[in-house]
Protein 1
Amino acid sequence: MRECCEKCLEYNVSCPIENSNCRHWIDYEDDSNCVLIAVDNNENDHMTLREVSKRVGVSFVRIKQIQTAAIKKLITYQKKSKSFE
């Protein structure tokens, strides 16, 4: 975990909006405005795509598109790695 995330957790504060250029910043106070903290907080719980879309402020359709693209990349990577074995 990044040093800034550890400090947010240690002092129980949210990442400031000035840090919104950070690629891990999200507008969600419950998880200290940090994707990395959100993942740690939900490590054992599965989230639906609708919950993810609400959490990151993106439409459900866009989350579904991202999921589909990620699965496609994983399958392609898996096929390539098997061909090198």
Note: The chain has a mean pLDDT of 78.
Protein 2
Amino acid sequence: MTHLTAKELQTQDPKKFQKEYSKWQEYALDYDWWDYMEETFKTDMAKVGIDVQRIYFSLSYSQGDYASFEGQINVAEWMEHKGYDETYPALYLAVKDYGEFARVSDRSRGGWPRVNFDGNVVGNTNPEGIFAGLEQDAWDELVYEQFSAAGLEGEMQSFVEDVCRKLYRDLRDEYEHLTSEESFIESCECNEITFETEECEA
């Protein structure tokens, strides 16, 4: 019998290497390997006004695969990130004054997470900032016009879908890295694991 490292086994006894590698894959990720990715995602989303409560995902390599999350969007902060505070200044000031939030719920009917934005800001704020001198009716009309033009719920929905696509790709790539042959070899080296084999060529 000869004791080989995983790297040596890979070249000298490929069949046994694949067997050991497959066995390792069964238990290699018996922990919440995505925890740090979830925390990173939460931190990144907080920078654009999104409070992520929890992520959801499936990596079964089928059409049902997805990544999603639940949380809420601070609409004013999100508008700042998108530059909409300059494009729709009256609407931005109204949203900020009212403290408007949009809810993000986990997938609806197997699709993307759903953004729900009530838009209660329309007709419920007073002239703000550079618009402070406007009459109330003129202000309400301006906010309504910008609200209609901005299509905030649809824009937030598209944004959420985009970040979920990226989250899925990131999770998939990390999963594939953690279960790769390279990670198996590295794990064996770190734990000083060797394998017995009778097939060893000089």
Note: The mean pLDDT is 93.
Protein 3
Amino acid sequence: MEIHALKRDMDILKTHIQMTFEEMLYRQKRYIIFDELDLATNTPDNYLKIIDKITGNVFDVHPLKVINIGNYHDIEVVTADGNFTKISIKIWDLSLEDRMILLELMDKCLED
């Protein structure tokens, strides 16, 4: 059935994204996407969406950095509501599309 094939393909994509994320963090322990000090004068261009697991509300955040800390990782973001409240999230807090966007931003850090 086509739905089963789509679910299998999505599971494969999730696994591939996770493996790529882990490989990138193995290669480089810290990715600075947007310098937190620049928030005083600039607004980041990049947005990701996260879901508040308690309320179910979806809100935009700006990614600042991704850090490998031993056996786990932190993705530091700030809210995009103008308050720039700092939040620490994990890769699985993001949709598949936003995980891909984060990988692209991390890859761009490697190029710089």
Note: Strands lie at 30-32, 48-51, 58-69, 72-79, 86-89.
